[in-house]
Design goal:
The chain is built from 3 helices and 6 strands; from the N terminus they run ααβββαβββ. It is α+β, with helices and mostly antiparallel strands. It folds into 2 domains: about 60 residues; about 50 residues, no CATH class. α1 packs antiparallel against α2. The two termini are about 45 Å apart.
């Protein structure tokens, strides 16, 4: 993505230089064509910049989410300001899809399972 962005910006720069150096020697139709190409290249660069900004924002969100999570025992907990823990969260969903799915107390009568993820259906015993 970044290479395409740089290429578009370079193309726009090259067109702008060509327009500047040849403005006096070229007829009006040629100048209008180069200006149209310049506008198109700059529009492409603007679109790529917006897409890159979205992707960077998403990656920053994922990085922040990962940095807030603590894997303790077999479960994830989110570390809040002040050091308090929130959770637990499903390790299967978090490791596989980067989703912080909160585990629910197991309502079924299974002595070896304390928590259940309603998204993936996995049971967890937090005592191990």
């Amino acid at each position: 993505m970044v290479a395409e962005y740089v290429t578009s910006i370079k193309a726009a720069w090259d067109l702008a230089k060509a327009i500047k150096t040849s403005a006096d020697a070229i007829d009006d139709a040629q100048i209008k064509l180069q200006i149209a190409e310049l506008i198109s290249a700059l529009a492409d660069a603007k679109i790529e910049a917006a897409e890159n900004a979205e992707r960077i924002s998403e990656l920053e969100r994922l990085l922040k989410n990962k940095s807030e999570m603590l894997f303790e025992g077999r479960l994830y907990y989110r570390i809040l300001d002040g050091g308090n823990k929130d959770g637990p969260f499903c390790p299967t969903c978090f490791d596989k899809d980067d989703k912080g799915i909160r585990l629910q107390p197991n309502s079924e009568d299974r002595s070896y399972d304390d928590w259940r993820c309603h998204a993936c259906g996995t049971y967890y015993d937090s005592s191990t």
